[in-house]
Design brief:
10 strands, binds adenosine-5'-diphosphate, ABC_transporter-like_CS, binds magnesium ion, transport, Rossmann fold, MacB-like_ATP-bd, transmembrane transporter activity, ABC transporter ATP-binding protein
Length: 246
């Protein structure tokens, strides 16, 4: 990523993006005209009810889909204009993901799953698996290193998902309803973990949720209704300090 930018300049810049989906004869306008700057180290929540456009917005931000109009830049790189190969390389070097359904590979152990982002960066096997084991210990899974996803609870799988998202120290971690399948106690643990890593390493988090309890962890809450930003609130830090396990 380019680093000439002074510290005050935004890490993520969203300019006039619009996203349309063709649906039969009709067109669904999922995002209308979104403008947003997100700074390095910010924990930014994209908040709204179901169907408000949150996942569509995250997909444009992370380069998973191309906006119909407008542009997204991360660290000055116009990711909405990169081709598939450039995007894959960009994601491997700069982005991490935490999924609602965990998305661990079923035939790999926890250690192998967490080591994957380092494999894509060319780190030799012994080193990357050592780093993965350290990461799994940090998320409280030292007793599950060689377990397969099906042998772990949802909360444990999501801890492994977090270890995988953060292991390569990405600039931005995207999380779309990361605790959507988890109980409230586990939700707190998972959110503390995500925010703890991000604060310690000054990483940017884009957290998509419809749940006000989760939004309470963010520094900033951007609220969407019908594909438009209707409010953008910066908050003082209350929750999600560095937990002792980190
Ligand atoms: P949220 O994540 O806030 O629940 P989405 O971003 O998934 O909302 O969806 C926003 C709107 O865009 C909805 O009306 C949804 O039906 C529509 N939409 C999302 N993806 C597609 C698609 N691939 N094709 C057609 N419509 C879509
Ligand atoms: Mg969604």
């Amino acid at each position: 990523m380019q680093e000439p930018c002074p510290r005050k300049c935004p890490l993520i810049e969203v300019r006039d993006i619009r996203k349309e989906y063709p649906l039969g004869e009709e067109t669904v306008v999922a995002l209308k005209r979104i403008n947003l700057n997100i700074m390095r180290g910010e924990i930014c929540c994209i908040f709204g009810t179901s169907g408000s456009g949150k996942s569509t917005f995250l997909n444009q931000l992370a380069g998973m889909e191309k906006p119909t109009r407008g542009e997204v830049r991360i660290g000055g790189v116009p990711i909405s204009r990169l081709d598939e190969n450039q995007l894959a390389a960009f994601r491997q070097h700069h982005l991490g993901f935490v999924f609602q359904a965990y998305n661990l590979l079923p035939n790999l152990t926890a250690t192998e799953n967490v080591a994957l982002p380092l494999m894509f960066r060319g780190v030799p096997r012994k080193q990357r698996e050592e780093a993965a084991r350290r990461m799994l210990c940090r998320v409280g899974l030292s007793h599950r290193l060689d377990h397969f996803p099906r042998q772990m609870s949802g909360g444990q799988q999501q801890r492994a998902g977090i270890a995988r998202a953060f292991i390569a120290r990405p600039d931005v971690v995207f999380a779309d309803e990361p605790t959507g399948n988890l109980d409230s106690k586990t939700t707190v643990e998972i959110m503390e973990m995500i925010c703890g890593f991000a604060r310690r390493y000054h990483q940017t988090i884009i957290l998509v949720t419809h749940d006000p309890e989760m939004a309470a962890y963010a520094d900033r809450i951007v609220r969407l209704i019908d594909g438009e930003i209707v409010s953008d609130e910066t908050r003082s830090r209350q929750k999600g300090g560095t937990p002792t396990c980190l």
